[in-house]
Structures are given as structure tokens and as C-alpha cells.
């Protein structure tokens, strides 16, 4: 029987979460609009593992509702727009506040630096430092570059998420 694992996909508005999920599930670029509520899809990684990925709207008004999606969450995938460094401080605050939730204790974190195909995107190291990732010594975490539009790094990232879950 296949293990179905709950994964939460979140981040600030316009980070590219819905585009990323659609690209992952359909292999196509899908025109998206800001998510009100959530999108959900199941990603079959292999014969034994499926990830149910919940893409939750990132607008400020939606963020208080994020906690309602945490039950049975086995990994958190936090998406940032690597072409918009001005929003990294806000992303850092949101991530830190969210990871302090009791339900996320010990839950592995995957940070996806999306929009790496854009010429002005900041480096993984810079994003890691801006988000203060090295301070999360109490959980497994990884950061990877990707491009939802080009489909680069998505499959690999979710295979890594699966490995992080198995390690935790």
C-alpha cells in the first residue's frame, strides 16, 4: 500500500506556489490567480510514496488561517521569490513565527528559492542567511533553487522532501 504524506506548501503572496504546484502535477505552465483558500494535489514520487501537497494562499489576510492546515503535516515547503529581495525580511518573520507553532515541532523544512531563472535573482546563500536558516538547528532543513515556470528543480526538490521526512 502507498504511503500518502501530507506536505504544506506556503510562502508570501506572489512567490509562485500555485504555479509551482500546477507545474509539478501537470508538467504545464498554468495561468494562476492569487489563491484564496487552498489548492491541493497528489504527487506520486514512486511506487511506494505519494505526497499530498496543500498550497495555501499567502496574502496577509490568509496567513492567520495557515495553522488550520498543520494537522498531520510531515514537511513544510516554504517558497520564496528569489527575484524580490525586498520581501525576504517579511518572509523571514513569517517563517519564524510559523515554525514556532507546536504542531510543527521537528517537522522538516524545505525552502524553495523560486524564479531562479530570472537574471536579478539572489543566491541561495543570501536567501539562507536572510531567512536565518542556520538558526534552525532543531530541525532538518534544506534550501534549493527552482523555477516553477521552467519546471527546473521541482521534481528533485520533492524527492528531497520525501528523504527529509524519512530521516526525521
- Tell me, what is the CATH class? Alpha Beta
Q: Tell me the strand percentage band.
A: 25-35%
Q: Spatial order of the strands in the main sheet?
A: 2-3-1-4-5-6
The secondary-structure element order is EHEEEHEHEH
- How would you sum up the global shape? globular
The helix content, as a percent range, equals 25-40%
- How many beta-strand segments? 6
- Main sheet summary: 6 strands, mixed
User: What CATH architecture label applies?
Assistant: 3-Layer(aba) Sandwich
Per DSSP, the total helix count is 4
Q: Note poorly predicted spans.
A: none
Mean pLDDT: 93
Question: How many separate structural domains?
Answer: 1
User: CA-to-CA gap between the ends?
Assistant: 21 Å
* CATH topology description: Rossmann fold
CATH homology-level superfamily: P-loop containing nucleotide triphosphate hydrolases
Structural class: alpha/beta
Q: Which short descriptors sum up this protein?
A:
single chain; 168 residues; alpha/beta; Rossmann fold; six-stranded mixed beta sheet; 4 helices; globular
Characterize the structure shown.
The protein has 168 residues and is α/β, with parallel strands linked by helices. The chain has a single domain, classed as 3-Layer(aba) Sandwich (Rossmann fold). The protein is built from 4 helices and 6 strands, in the order βαβββαβαβα. A 6-stranded mixed sheet has the order 2-3-1-4-5-6, with helices on both faces. Strand 4 (73-81), helix 2 and strand 5 form a beta-alpha-beta unit. The radius of gyration is 15 Å and the shape is globular. The two termini are 21 Å apart.
